């Protein structure tokens, strides 16, 4: 194996028989994530009263969760049972692409959910015209294509780097860890990474914050009954947003593993919120 052709995931080294316990837990988590999210997608697809923008966006989050776990858990479970924890450079970059696409897609979909709530509360009479199926389809397509295009370009830039090391202190392939192994000039990668961070994380979160500030301003000027309904309709988005934000913060802070628990808890929360919101739908 030539240096730079394969990467080694070092966090799997010397874990002994505990690997089997981790494998069992990981397998249960993976099955639960797929089950909860598939249940949400199926419920929204079959129940015609749920064919509304907010529910459709929740189903998009579930699809995205299944997409993200498909890149993480199968590889993780294989490595736990393997004695050699190597991954080809191409497979590593592909895994990083899918995982980062999952994270950025989640941000843009949450931004669309904030926009949907903002329109529903600020322009209730025009809501059906603004959030019609055609516009919603275009917005969802953009929210998926743009982040994946950016992450794809970052992957191509990483693939062109000359590697001077092959040890990744992660349980999955991480773009920044790959870049740090390079002995070439990485200024282009760093600048483009900052661009991705700005357009797929900072800007969506800023828009979400702006939307809720505007919603709070509108609610302050409205009746008590209007405020109650407005807060009630925003709860699902706020809970999902907080869940993802906390998991993302933990990932950035601890920098150890993809927040798999976020994918499971997120799916379960979305299921509970879906049941709760269905009871409110006339």
From TrEMBL:
<feature type="transmembrane region" description="Helical">
    <location>
        <begin position="93"/>
        <end position="115"/>
    </location>
</feature>
<feature type="transmembrane region" description="Helical">
    <location>
        <begin position="20"/>
        <end position="46"/>
    </location>
</feature>
<dbReference type="GO" id="GO:0004984">
    <property type="term" value="F:olfactory receptor activity"/>
</dbReference>
<feature type="transmembrane region" description="Helical">
    <location>
        <begin position="135"/>
        <end position="157"/>
    </location>
</feature>
<dbReference type="InterPro" id="IPR017452">
    <property type="entry name" value="GPCR_Rhodpsn_7TM"/>
</dbReference>
<dbReference type="InterPro" id="IPR052921">
    <property type="entry name" value="GPCR1_Superfamily_Member"/>
</dbReference>
<dbReference type="GO" id="GO:0005549">
    <property type="term" value="F:odorant binding"/>
</dbReference>
<keyword id="KW-1003">Cell membrane</keyword>
<dbReference type="GO" id="GO:0005886">
    <property type="term" value="C:plasma membrane"/>
</dbReference>
<feature type="transmembrane region" description="Helical">
    <location>
        <begin position="191"/>
        <end position="213"/>
    </location>
</feature>
<keyword id="KW-1133">Transmembrane helix</keyword>
<keyword id="KW-0675">Receptor</keyword>
<keyword id="KW-1015">Disulfide bond</keyword>
<dbReference type="Pfam" id="PF13853">
    <property type="entry name" value="7tm_4"/>
</dbReference>
<dbReference type="InterPro" id="IPR000725">
    <property type="entry name" value="Olfact_rcpt"/>
</dbReference>
<feature type="transmembrane region" description="Helical">
    <location>
        <begin position="234"/>
        <end position="254"/>
    </location>
</feature>
<keyword id="KW-0472">Membrane</keyword>
<protein>
    <submittedName>
        <fullName>Putative gustatory receptor clone PTE03</fullName>
    </submittedName>
</protein>
<feature type="domain" description="G-protein coupled receptors family 1 profile">
    <location>
        <begin position="36"/>
        <end position="242"/>
    </location>
</feature>
<keyword id="KW-0552">Olfaction</keyword>
<keyword id="KW-0325">Glycoprotein</keyword>
<dbReference type="GO" id="GO:0004930">
    <property type="term" value="F:G protein-coupled receptor activity"/>
</dbReference>
<feature type="transmembrane region" description="Helical">
    <location>
        <begin position="53"/>
        <end position="73"/>
    </location>
</feature>
<keyword id="KW-0807">Transducer</keyword>
<keyword id="KW-0297">G-protein coupled receptor</keyword>
<keyword id="KW-0812">Transmembrane</keyword>
<keyword id="KW-0716">Sensory transduction</keyword>
